[in-house]
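Quick start: load a record and inspect it. Here is GlsB/YeaQ/YmgE family stress response membrane protein:
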Amino acid sequence: MLGLIITVIVIGLIAGALARLVVPGKQDMSIGMTILIGVIGSFVGGFLGYLLFHKDGDDGFLQPAGILGSFIGAIIVLLLWIRFSGRRSITG
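Running the structure step on this input writes:
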């Protein structure tokens, strides 16, 4: 169980960091937030993979397609984060 948690954190860090490298612009977030973006992206990528291909993790936890899905999911989550977390100003 501890190995699974560490693996999820490491994959989340890698997916989140790669997503931050690919998405243009400056993202002001900590390493913890990068890991969180990557972990949430892993779930999003896994869900989208299941919806598209109707397969799940029966073949094991670490698969190349799963890591690619984590990266794509992290990009989606990061773009949504940038879109919806912007500062709003009141003009009037």
